[in-house]
Give the backbone structure.
Amino acid sequence: MPEALNVDIARLVDERRVTAFNIGLVVLSFLVILFDGYDLTAIAFAVPYILKDWGLTGGAALGPVFSASLFGVLLGSPLLGYVGDRFGRKVAIIASCLIFGTFTLALVKATSLTDLIYMRALAGVGLGGLLPNLIALNGEYAPRRFRATMIIVMFCGVTFGGALPGAVAVWLVPRFGWPALFYVGGIFPFVMAVGAALWMPESVKYLALREQTRPQAVKILSRLMPDLAIGTDTKLSIGGEARYKSLSPKLLFSDGLGLITLLLWLCFAINLMGYYFLVSWMPTLMTTGQKILSPGDAAIVTSLIQLGGTLGGLVLCRPMDKRGITPLAIFAVAAVPCVAMIGYAAISSPTALFVVAFIAGFCLLGLQFGLNAASAMIYPTAFRSSGSGWAFGVGRLGSIVGPIFGGFLIHMQIPLQTLFAVAAIPFAVGAVACLLLAHLYRQEFRGAGFGQREPV
């Protein structure tokens, strides 16, 4: 009797070429993740109308409204990352869309600041679940030589989504009022949930890890590779990966991952702290005090940071596929002088500031795109969503601290050149962390360490 076929899924996926299946998954994920960027800017467009509609005279009290969704993401990323590892990426993505859509739609009935804070925090829980599970799912279907590329391209949906509320504010808000922003932001996640339920595949690696879902893995593999004779007696493995009996967060610190996990968290937190500092305070710094820029030019500066970041992420794609995390270290080191130079460029000329802001965005936001992909490259299938989720959750602490740190520096009333030079100091710490992370990644994943169980 012939021996049953043994299929190494990790090797099959890694050695496949990019197909229409991969492209379709990236496109669908791109559309889903649009709402991460949409959420970040929709509330900013809604605030002026809310103030007017509710008869409020100042916007200072709305500060907690802006940060509420970040606290929600802080909770939702590890929580729904666990759900993705326990019940499946597809289940967690659909649940995230439903949670986010429900509480964003509920914002149209808000009648007080307290309503806004609670609804945005709960919507943030769902939003936080999208990021780690979409990373895990795309990473587990992407061939090894294109894994970083496909994750980064997917994440470009965040910056495209950030531009959508502006169009809604121009076309729909004058006719339907500020709730239009939240109708759009609430209804479309339901559409995406339906799209995910109909067309988004579950991770074949996740399915193969569990005996009860093994028939589904066989079915997907048969569809992906019809020339391969896969039957009910086919043995499925994932590059020798250990069959973990639990999904404890302790796994993030096992098998040589302890220091790698801590360094990844530090890189996430510092980089998001810097990014949110720039996008939160740049317009205010440039239009008040010395009045370096007009409000219109300040908006251009913020847009250039986003545009530069998108380009930076795309530039990182292929180098990361070929060199792992090493290109991230180069971006992290380059970010330090770029941030420090912003103050000097600002007092020099608007043109110089535009150029430096673009380069700073290229390094900072581009680096964040790369870190997103790195979290999928580091952790194995069994707890990949949890690993990414915890990184995003800890990173959101940085996004909360960043604007507070900026406010403290501004309160000191120090010269603009000194302010940005001081702001660059945390990035120096982040650069050291990224260099160490790149070194450990090469040591553990290219040698005889953790990577033997699932090649990255």
